[in-house]
Every structure is written in C-alpha cells, then in structure tokens.
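subagent[fold] <- orchestrator: predict structure for attached chain, return tokens only, no commentary.
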Amino acid sequence: MIEVRNMTKKYGKLTANDNINLSVGRGELAVLLGPNGAGKSTLIKSICGLLRFQGTITIGGHENHTIEAKRLLGYVPEFPVLYPMLTVAEHLEFIAKAYRLKNWQEKGEDLLRRFDLVDKKKKLGKELSKGMQQKVSVCCALLPEPQAVIMDEPLVGLDPHGIRELKTMIAQLRDSGCALLISTHMIESMEEDWDVTYIMVKGRIARVCRRQELATGQSLEDVYFAITEGKYRGAGNELSGFSAC
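subagent[fold] -> orchestrator:
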C-alpha cells in the first residue's frame, strides 16, 4: 500500500535519507524507530508529499504527490497545526468539504466522543491545549477513512485516556485492513501490535525486523538498542553473540 523505493533526500550537502526502501502492506502496522536526527521525520514528510526527493514513493499504486494518492492517505504530523480561528467542529467540516465526504457527521461525532472532544466542539483552535490539538489532528486525519495512515509521534502530549484510545484505534485500523506507518520514541507503546519495524540510523534503514523473527524473550526495545547502541539492555551484556532479529 505504501511503497518507498530508492528514495534519497538531500539538504545541500547533507543527506537526510540515503537510498531508503520501505513497504507497508494492507492490514500491516509498521513502526519507524531511530534516534534524534536519524531522518525519520524527513522520510515521513517525503512520503506525504511535503518534500521533494529522488526515487519513487507510491500510495496504493499512485505516485504520492497525486490527488489519487492523497485521497487514500491520512497524516498526523508530529506538531499539530490547526487553524486558530476555526472551531473544532469547523475543522472537521473543512476536512469533509475538502474530501467531498457525504454523511460524515456521525463518523465525526464518534471520533470526537472517543477523544473526549464533544464538549470542545465550539472551542477555537488557538484555545486548545497541545494535547487537545493533537486529538483534533487525529480526528481530521481519520475522518475520510483513509486506507493508509502515517503518524509522527502521535502519542506525545496526549493524556492517559487519549493514549489508550489512540492505541485501540490503531489496532482497529490495522484489523480493518488499513496500512499504518508510525514513527515514535515510545517503543513500549507499540510492543503489542507491530508487524514490522524499520530502524533508522544516520539516514539509512539499519535493520528491518518482523515480529516473527524475534528470538524467544526478545523485545522490540532489545532490538532497537542492539542496533543503535550495540548493547542488549535487557541483560546488560555486550552483544557478542546476540541476534538482533
């Protein structure tokens, strides 16, 4: 559903993404991990058509910058950007009109209810806290019922209820056949439902790991630190004979 082939992004002499290959199928939850500066956000913005790049990126077989691809894709950025003078309800109405949605009101109400935003419908974007803005951003991304969803640090700023609800929603989206790519530093939050993990280091995919490839007793956190630091954090031992995946 999401296909990235031989993708490279440079800022002058700096190579932020170096020959990236990545694939997320229908009903698959892919996690994107990496230390700060690894190139995760650049990759996500490129996939969403916000940056120019070399290589090929397609969404559902369509080039990512086309209208056909954008209709299939929902995007939750790391930092929510709302219209300061639109209310929460007007944000959903704006998305509905932009995507030419019909009979969307019930879906919109359900999203607001799940994120405890029903009583905030008349609040302006500028009046919302960071966590509330994040919830509105998620609602706007999911209102068109996209077939592929990309989220960049979606849990940051959410309250415990919001975190639980979003994790539940992510699992439901995957089970419904949606392709999901989620970048996060909160590794433990994805431990339950991930299918494939891409670990980035210095602009490259350093390791692709599928859940079934994990050794007995091994966690996603173990794999991450094995790649990024060369240590098996769970046992505190050097990785001389440890298989990362």
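orchestrator: received. Logging for downstream: Residues 199 and 205 are 6 Å apart (CA to CA). The chain has a mean pLDDT of 90.
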